[in-house]
Design goal:
The protein is an alpha+beta fold. It has 33 helices and 45 strands. The two termini are about 30 Å apart.
Length: about 1450
């Protein structure tokens, strides 16, 4: 965090957007025949994904560190001539296929003997290297050949610029794999290249169709030659060396000129030889398949700047003299949809990017307006950076363009030699250069990661419209020649960039330590492992691990396992050391330690396990979403959250997983790996006897059986070593021995031995990596809250995970709505993602207040939403989302500190509804239950299938929400001893999980408490649920239960039915369920068609059931999602992460049939809510919705509401009350309904920054406190937030900065508003700003417009500074409004006489009267009032605590007299 408590982001939303494009185009590889899979598939899930290059984004990508993916890679135009023969050139064996893997050639070429191939001659040095002949001349082909030295070209090798594949011998081919290099997006002297094959034109022939720009120095286009036969037609592939050849323009021109031809922009193409003149039909969807040909025509590059600051690379080729050719769409000024993020210069005061927009008239005319964007001319500048030998640090800081090893140029026309060197820098200059100052100079250094790198002495920038300067973006993929090779290089560079980011080493190191069993490693531990990661080396006991390469995992593994914190027994005694172990790891350890053996007749194709995600919450290849099984920062309520510690694996501790794991291990002991009694194996429809393993998939072969008492003790010790790493406590060992003795006597050794193993597998030491200290007392069950007499109420929250495209749920109406055409256009029209009019069900939109739009539309796949809305029981919330405060298009970026558009972050924000993390609990519904429980209500919190922070409350309560599975609710079971009335194993399990003392491990304690609570709760609930019937069938065939949403709402309906049987009975319930898969980056229509029918069926069934139960007025259902999606479609008929979305709420008490919030008034880029790419700025916060829900649940005290919604005061009156949303609602919004006043406030700060969110809120708290004291009313009758911050150079404090803002103050109508006028509000704001400067705003300068009444140790700041400072031992009491016109007043004489034009004759208790202030400082212990203010800031002591709760008194209004006793503000208080 920075000094102002703001999180320093590792990456931004633009980084996410840009870097996600690197990962486009990945597809499964084909299934191999030599691997086994448990399902039929044409895809391989064992092999790495491959890239389909035409689906891969081929534009430049910005990097996380502010640079570009491709930085420090050499330029392809700097490749030495004949680079395919130079040291380091790599060739890969293709066997009998002439088809390259990394380049596109038509498939039929491989078998077409007419295709001209590049055949090496035996005299060639390259032939000798690839053939590697023995003494008999027989080739010995290697899979990969890398040239170790430069080779001379031979014959036709000297006539080409690059290679694809070469034929070494008949039937043997090698592919040339050029080393990675980058192209700059803008380059000098761009030339026009053409492609395409149009219809034949009489007397002319066929013409090309498309054109774009290319760098003439790059071998990216094929040969073309005109006028060979006195015609303006071009012969394509003229005198080429092999099919698929690409050459530089100079090579093409030299060859053509040698035959008296020219390179031109032809009228048509010559096609006399069809085998040579391949018809290059332009292929837009597959750019890698296009073949371009050189022309001599010029081509202009320019830049199109979108409203959000992203740019498009534009090509404007010179139009053909004889016909109009088209520009390739992805670089065409009209048709391009490819925009990239760039780093603009930021305004130093507003932190806003400076770039041309339509709003600023495209940079005041330096660019032109084109299609709601700015089209800018581009000027390229390439200059050297250093003129003398720089230091290594200077090179690393200033050079971003790489270079090739100078040794590769030894046999070229231009060679390099070492010019100058220092201890860590070598400078190589070319033979045609005079010194280091040339752009072509190459510096050799060792980089931050220990690698040798070569960097070019050059910087390349582009200037747009002679005003805006940007770095020239590098790219691995050349737009004229899109190739798989370069896409793979780009992905590799991206992964290298990520792993080398400064945050990666500590991040990965900490995560690996956590996976090794320590959830909360110390900073020192993380630092030591990080050092091993960075250095690639770790030494212990004289043995060094690793290869000294960055990221070496051998060194990291050694650093973790051999660290003192891993080895020292002392750390085992630390209560916070250790973790709760993952279920899958426990199962694997159990099977491996006890020597699991698969029965020979069982084939792997049958599968060893079944329903593992339900049974224990985790299974290989079956995570619930892309974020894996649990969050690494999950902190359970209770001691973990209170101590700010994490226990990630605790997120898996649901009712089904805890009971399922216990039952599965018990079944393993009883039956082997089988299905019986909740076992992990697949169902074979047979229940064997205990001890019969014949129907199992396999069994445990470790000899854990005992023969006598000594054997029992030894067996327990051995099992403890294998299963708990020897951590089994002496008390729990004794419990297991007692159990063995009991069951041995009662049932025999076989039963006793199985009980022994079951208890070992149930021990907290097995499930955690903690040591325990037992008290011997029985562990108490967490008691349920007693039920009150209040009627039942429940909130059900349905989360559409992934970010639902909610503007395809609530749309403009199909009729009578002038918004529809704009919506249809913005969503891409017919080929886009919008709903057509026949896919929309109209609803009444009168409440939306949109002029010209009397209807909005509901997706026809959700008729239940329309029916409930028309019934008057449902409301839509338009454009709602996470906000810190009301923001605008101009300030959202600086006023919003959340990592927007991220699934993880935005989902958490929708659960927490606490933007500044001021609340006591992580979840908004959990905090609501905290208050309700304090009111005496019995509360319930239940999540279905997975934990949800939304329903977790304060860690101080220790209340853990229930997590139930739709697959059913098991109970802890053993066929012999935990069944029905036979509970003989219970006392031993209870003893095993008995109470621990305060010095015992917290993870073991948490596991035992969770196990005991769930055990007892499931025992009570299972039978009740089984006997519960619903009035509604909830029929859920697969097509209406996608994502299990119908099953989830059915379970919730059943839990509501048995509300009186749960615990002591429930008064207030909250439920959370989730339907995933809405992250529709690809084919959003398909996603909605798959998901929405199930959601519709589930909602309709639940609504019918609640009404059948007669509880419709007691239950409110909210459907939300973490964020909305872009209005603008992406290139895959999908939509991307956005912000504001539309959501639905229904219930019998809901005042429905209305649209709440502000539906967008247009879908154009100029709309005030559109912040770019159709991302809509929310106009209503989550706080607004939950404010009304909080009141509806019975919380009306303002302090209690503030506990539930700590940030609700930051939204002024933009909140809903229960009266707004519910028929039974009676509450009004405190502090609203009366006058609204706005007044400017200003703070002087020493650096450029805005007030943090917390500072803004504290300023408002001061203002409200002052107002309430001044006018004698409760603070809840007024509201305040700070809006429209800006920063400028300070005039009153030179060298400092003024932070200006607007204090928006709302008052309610209960007698306060009439007594508050603008003058008083201004006085309040001024006093607040002065007080906040002293005690709230970090680093702010104390304020006054005139000198202080009491002199200070240092001068104060005011509008008119004094010539000399006052000196005193007391701080100022208050600022004054204006400078005094009379001299200083003090009650004690000065130690020395004042020196003035008319000095006093002697010290007095009354002021001396002079016409000007003293020339030098006076020293006194009482206040002075001077005629002019002082020059410099007052030094005032900042309180040691936040000021928000201190009594700061009130402010009188400004006097009208010039007398010192008036015209000043008086601050009264308790003297702090």
């Amino acid at each position: 965090r920075d000094p102002f408590d703001q999180v320093i982001q590792t990456y931004t939303n633009l980084d996410i957007l840009s870097n996600s494009r690197v990962m486009t185009g990945f597809i499964f590889t084909a299934r191999r025949g030599n691997t086994e899979e448990l399902f039929r598939s044409e895809k391989s899930r064992q092999d790495p994904l491959r890239i389909e290059v035409d689906k891969h984004d081929f534009f430049p990508k910005s990097a996380v560190d502010g640079g570009w993916i491709g930085d420090r890679y050499p330029l392809c135009v700097d490749l030495p001539r004949y680079h395919f023969l130079k040291m380091g050139a790599k060739y890969q064996l293709r066997g009998g296929s002439s088809m390259p893997r990394l380049h596109h050639n038509p498939h039929h070429w491989d078998s077409d003997e007419s295709i001209k191939r590049f055949v090496l001659m035996q005299e060639s040095g390259l032939y000798q290297q690839l053939c590697n002949p023995d003494e008999n001349g027989i080739c010995n082909f290697a899979n990969i050949v890398t040239l170790e030295s430069n080779l001379a070209c031979y014959d036709k090798e000297c006539r080409i610029d690059t290679l694809q594949t070469v034929q070494v011998t008949p039937g043997t081919f090698y592919e040339y794999v050029r080393q990675p290099c980058i192209d700059l997006s803008f380059y000098p002297n761009p030339k026009k290249i053409v492609t395409g094959f149009s219809q034949w034109v009489r007397n002319i022939g066929r013409r090309h169709t498309h054109a774009m720009c290319a760098d003439p120095r790059s071998a990216v286009a094929a040969r073309s030659c005109c006028n060979i036969a006195a015609t303006l037609r071009a012969e394509y592939n003229y005198d080429f060396e092999y099919h698929g050849e690409r050459v530089r323009l100079a090579t093409n021109m030299d060859q053509c000129a040698a035959d008296n031809g020219t390179v031109c922009d032809p009228i048509a193409m010559k096609a006399d030889n069809p085998l040579v003149n391949i018809r290059p039909v332009y292929n837009y969807p597959f750019p890698s398949q296009n073949t371009f040909f050189w022309t001599d025509a010029n081509c202009t590059q320019s830049v199109k700047v979108r409203e959000d600051g992203m740019i498009a690379i534009i090509n404007e080729p010179v139009t053909n003299p004889w016909f109009t050719d088209n520009t390739v769409p992805f670089v065409d000024v009209v048709n391009t949809v490819n925009y990239i993020s760039v780093t603009w210069e930021k305004d130093p005061m507003s932190f806003i990017d400076i770039y041309p927009t339509v709003e600023n008239f495209c940079g005041q005319g330096v660019c032109s307006i084109r299609d709601d964007a700015c089209l800018c001319s581009m000027m390229l500048s390439e200059t050297p950076v250093f003129t003398s030998l720089p230091t290594r640090d200077d090179i690393l800081a200033n050079l971003t363009i790489g270079a090739f090893d100078p040794d590769t140029f030894l046999d070229s026309n231009i060679t390099y030699s070492l010019q100058e060197s220092s201890e860590d820098v070598e400078a190589f200059v070319p033979s045609d250069s005079d010194g280091i100052g040339a752009m072509s100079t190459i510096f050799k250094i060792i980089d931050e990661y220990g690698d040798t790198v070569f960097l070019k002495n050059m910087v390349s920038t582009i200037t747009l419209g002679n005003t805006y300067e940007l770095r020239n973006p590098p790219s691995f993929i050349n737009l004229a020649k899109v190739e798989l090779r370069d896409a793979e290089y780009e992905v590799d560079a991206f992964l290298t960039h990520l792993i080398r980011h400064s945050s990666s080493a500590p991040f990965i190191s900490k995560k690996l330590i956590q996976y090794h069993g320590i959830s909360n490693p110390t900073p020192g531990f993380v630092q030591r492992v990080t050092q091993a990661f960075v250095s690639g080396s770790f030494t212990s006991g004289g043995i060094t691990f690793g290869n000294q390469k960055y990221g070496n995992l051998k060194a990291v593994a050694a650093a973790i396992t051999l660290d003192p914190e891993s080895l020292s027994p002392v750390t085992d005694e630390d209560p916070i050391s250790g973790n709760i172990r993952e279920p899958l790891l426990k199962l694997v350890q159990f099977m491996r330690s006890l020597s699991f053996k698969r029965r020979p007749q069982v084939k792997f194709r049958h599968g060893l396990f079944e329903d593992m995600s339900f049974k224990m919450g985790q299974m290989v290849f079956d995570p619930p979403d892309q974020f894996s099984f649990f969050s690494t920062d999950y902190s359970p309520p209770g001691v973990f959250a209170e101590a700010e510690m994490v226990s990630p694996e605790s997120e898996l501790l649901s009712m089904s997983s805890v009971v399922g794991l216990s039952n599965g291990l018990t079944s393993f002991v009883n039956y082997g790996l089988a299905y019986a009694d909740g076992g992990f194996g697949p169902s074979f429809n047979r229940l064997p006897a205990v001890g019969d393993y014949s129907s199992s998939m396999g069994f445990l072969t470790f000899p854990y059986q005992t023969s006598n008492d000594t054997s029992v003790s030894n067996t327990i010790d051995e099992l403890s070593t294998m299963l708990t790493a020897g951590r089994l406590s002496a008390e729990n060992k004794q419990v297991i021995m007692d159990a063995h003795a009991y069951f041995n006597q009662a049932y025999g050794t076989d039963f006793a031995d199985r009980v022994l193993l079951k208890l070992m597998a149930s021990s907290p030491e097995f499930h955690t990596s903690n040591t325990l200290r037992k008290t011997g007392s029985t562990r108490p069950i967490t008691p349920p809250s007693p039920k009150s007499s209040s009627p039942y109420k429940a909130i059900v929250y349905i989360n559409l995970a992934g970010g639902a495209d909610s503007f395809n749920i609530l749309t403009p109406g199909a009729s009578d709505c002038n918004l529809y055409d704009g919506y249809w256009e913005a969503r891409g029209r017919g080929a886009g993602i919008g709903l057509s009019t026949d896919e929309i069900l109209d609803i009444d939109a009168w409440s939306a207040g949109i002029s010209g739009c009397s209807s909005l539309g509901v997706n026809k796949l959700l008729p239940a939403y329309k029916d409930i809305f028309d019934e008057g029981k449902g409301v839509f919330f338009a454009n709602m989302g996470h906000l810190h405060k009301p923001v605008t298009k101009a300030n959202w970026l600086t006023e919003t500190k959340t990592d927007l558009f991220s699934h993880h972050t935005m989902k958490l924000e929708s659960h927490v509804v606490d933007a500044f993390r001021e609340g006591d609990g992580p979840g908004v519904l959990g905090r609501m239950l905290d208050i309700l429980e304090g009111y005496g209500h019995a509360v319930g919190a239940t999540a279905v299938n997975a934990r949800a922070p939304m329903i977790d409350g304060s860690p101080k309560t220790g209340r853990l929400a229930d997590v139930m599975s739709t697959e059913g609710m098991p109970r802890v079971f053993d066929r012999n001893f935990l069944k029905g009335e036979d509970q003989q194993l219970r006392e031993f399990l209870e003893a095993l999980h008995s109470e621990t003392d305060d010095s015992s491990g917290i993870f073991g304690n948490a596991w035992s408490q969770t196990f005991v609570d769930i055990w007892n709760k499931t025992d009570a609930l299972v039978m009740t649920l089984r006997n519960t019937d619903l009035a509604t069938p909830f029929a859920s065939p697969a097509k209406t239960n996608v994502g299990g949403i119908t099953s989830q709402l059915k379970l919730i309906a059943r839990l509501i039915t048995i509300r009186n049987e749960r615990g002591s009975g429930i008064n207030r319930d909250v439920f959370y369920c989730e339907m995933g898969g809405f992250d529709a980056h690809f084919k959003v229509a398909t996603v909605m068609e798959n998901k929405l029918p199930s959601l519709n069926h589930a909602v309709a069934s639940f609504w019918a059931e609640i009404k059948a139960q007669g509880l419709q007025n007691s239950v409110t259902v909210v459907q939300g999602s973490e964020f909305g999606r872009t209005i603008t479609p992406n290139s895959n008929q999908g939509s991307d992460h956005a912000w504001g979305g539309n959501y639905f709420m229904f219930g019998g008490d809901v005042r429905g049939g209305r649209i709440m919030g502000d539906y967008p008034l247009s879908f154009s880029v100029s709309d005030p809510t559109n912040i770019g790419r159709g991302r809509l700025l929310p106009t209503t916060s989550w706080d607004a919705l939950f404010y009304a829900l909080t009141q509806w649940m019975g919380i009306t005290d303002q302090d209690d509401i503030d506990y539930v919604l700590p940030n609700s005061q930051n939204f002024g009156c933009n909140l809903f009350t229960d009266y707004d949303l519910f028929n039974s609602g009676q509450q009004v919004l405190n502090g609203c309904g009366g006058a609204t006043h706005t007044t400017p406030i200003t703070f002087q700060v020493p650096e450029i920054r805005m007030l943090t969110g917390k500072e803004q809120k504290q300023v408002c708290r001061l203002a409200m406190r002052t107002t309430s004291l001044m006018y004698n009313f409760d603070r809840s009758q007024a509201r305040c937030y700070v809006a429209d911050q800006s920063i400028v150079d300070s005039e009153v404090a030179p060298g400092k900065y003024d932070v200006n803002g607007i204090a928006v103050m709302n008052f309610d109508s209960r007698g306060v508003a009439s007594s508050v006028d603008e003058t008083k509000v201004k006085a309040i704001a001024k006093s607040t700003a002065a007080t906040a400067s002293d005690f709230v705003i970090e680093g702010a300068l104390p304020q006054s417009e005139a000198p202080s009444q009491t002199p200070s140790m240092q001068p104060s700041v005011s509008a008119m500074p004094s010539f000399e400072p006052s000196v005193s031992s007391m701080p100022s009491e208050s600022p004054s409004e204006s400078p005094s016109d009379v001299p200083s007043v003090s009650s004690q004489p000065s130690d020395e006489p004042s020196i003035s034009l008319e000095p006093s004759g002697e010290p007095t208790s009354l002021p001396s009267t002079t016409s000007s202030p003293s020339i030098t400082a006076s020293t006194s212990f009482s206040p002075t009032i001077s005629g002019s203010p002082t020059l410099a800031p007052t030094n005032r002591t900042v309180f040691e605590q936040d000021f928000q709760y201190r009594d700061i008194g009130y402010v009188s209004y400004a006097g009208m007299s010039d007398s010192p006793s008036n015209g000043l503000y008086t601050v009264e208080g308790n003297g702090w």
